[in-house]
Design a protein that fits this description.
Layout: H1 2-19, H2 23-31, E1 37-41, E2 48-56, H3 60-68, H4 73-76, E3 80-88, E4 94-102, E5 109-119, E6 123-128, E7 135-145, E8 150-160, H5 167-193
Antiparallel strand pairs: 1-2, 2-8, 3-4, 4-5, 5-6, 6-7, 7-8
Amino acid sequence: MRLAILVVTFVALLAFVAWGPTEASAQVVVAAERLDLTLVRDARDGSHGLRAEFDIAAPVSVVWAVLVDCDTAAQHVPGMKSCRVLEQDRGGLWDIREHRVKLPWFPLVLRNVVRSDYEPLARLRYQKAKPDGQRLDGEWRLTSINGGAATHIVYVGYLTGVLPIPELILRAYVREGIEAVRLESLTRMRAQSR
């Protein structure tokens, strides 16, 4: 069994390297190497996740708009094929979304239904809408800094699959996702400034 897991992990790593991010997104991953991702453990169940703390030179309102924008998510989120809101609170405090995602190391498009709970302009928590033994949850916490000109972000996320995901691949994927949020926030900030 361990040999089978090692073989699958090795093949996944080769697939990620060979067919993974495009040249442009690979440059984003390399540029984001400076982003410090630390391994964290959830005291409740021992699951491992990743934590990042970083700043974006854009106001909280711009970063928040990027995080909650389902309509354009497929244009800037790595691997996102589609995002569709299935159900939502009239007050805007939660929604349930269907994400179709193609991970570079997995041959199929995955469908995840995720519930997001919102504390507008401060915190976005997400988790699988229907737990199925796999874990997909976390949060983005936003704090205004530099007199409102920038945003400090603390991100914590957990992702476990049927097979263990090698930490190297998971780190690269999370880095690419965070860098996509940063770049889209800066792009929108520049567009607003014109």
